[in-house]
Amino acid sequence: MALQRIKKAESHFGQVVIGPPGSGKTTYCAKVYNFYKDKLNRKVEIVNLDPANENMNYTPKIDIMQLVTVEDVMKELNLGPNGALMYCMEYLEQNFDWLLNQLTKIKDRYLIFDMPGQVELFTHHTSIKDVFGRLEKLGYHLCAVHLVDSHYCSDPPKFISTLLLSLSTMLQIGLPHVNVLSKADLLKKNASKLDFGLDFYTDVLNLDYLLEMLDDGPFTKKFKKLNGALVGLIQDYSLVGFVLLDAKSDRSLLELKSAVDKANGYIYGSGEERSIQTLLSCAVGARTESERFDSDYM
Ligand SMILES: Nc1nc2c(ncn2[C@@H]2O[C@H](COP(=O)(O)OP(=O)(O)OP(=O)(O)O)[C@@H](O)[C@H]2O)c(=O)[nH]1
């Protein structure tokens, strides 16, 4: 019987790696590139969209620094580093055709986008949202992978601000979204010093416990009403949860891969066409990349 096919012309999959400075984006991009390529036999390329990325430990297929750099903008327009970065992202938005032209030269590859770290680019500014919105309309199935340093779990006010940052980024960017607590190896080492178990932070369990700690804190107790309103907002949306990431562990990279593949739809079939057979294979639990990895490496 001939296979029924769901036409998905020009369909591409990938992930957009975002997060505050130092959260581990570039390290993760390099690790995940090697992991997907060497351990999962996935065809993959990295796109660097950070115009100030000086310490790339990978070779990007596309590099925004060939279009514009923060250094040049600072010199030419006499701007500070943050203003220059904003300008670069607006310049990318205006030169979307440059990016699209580069992307169309890459055939049949899973894409990893390494992004700059300034959080306002993802919580307020619209250029990055616009660039990825246009790519989505052109058949790019992308998922935001939002890394935040898990060190923030060690302090209730910092964890609340992490939750607010993650929530506002999710709402602003508008892509399928996976929140990640990075450097989980360090978090696990210091787990005994945390106020709650790890599940409390990853599953964002009852935040009233955190609220009690804020209400008792020497600096935060005078903002009881504000604290209550902020925690209430996060709970009302009920959108934020986290996957732990230790970038040095293949097991951890594999767990995150599963979450990302579900979010951007990669598990339902990649490439230019999706067949009913692929969808059925997912439904009946056919041998997955994860299972192949387990049998080959575990
Ligand atoms: N222990 C540990 N350290 C990590 C991990 N991932 C990244 N790091 C370290 O965290 C630091 C920052 O990592 P980067 O990858 O440069 O972070 P970034 O988000 O790209 O930083 P910016 O380019 O400044 O935005 C580096 O010293 C990394 O070695 C991890 O899983 N565990």
From TrEMBL:
Keywords, alphabetical: GTP-binding, Hydrolase, Nucleotide-binding
Pfam families given in the database record: ATP_bind_1 (PF03029)
Keyword Nucleotide-binding part of the UniProt annotation: yes
InterPro entries to which the protein is assigned, alphabetical: Gpn, Gpn2, P-loop_NTPase
CDD domains listed in its UniProt record: GPN2 (cd17871)
GO molecular function, one term: GTPase activity
GO CC aspect terms: cytoplasm
Keyword Heme applies: no
Tree of life domain: Eukaryota
Protein family (similarity comment): Belongs to the GPN-loop GTPase family.
Subunit architecture: Heterodimers with GPN1 or GPN3. Binds to RNA polymerase II (RNAPII).
Functional description taken from the UniProt entry: Small GTPase required for proper localization of RNA polymerase II and III (RNAPII and RNAPIII). May act at an RNAP assembly step prior to nuclear import.
Protein name as it appears in the record: GPN-loop GTPase 2
Species of the source: Psylliodes chrysocephalus
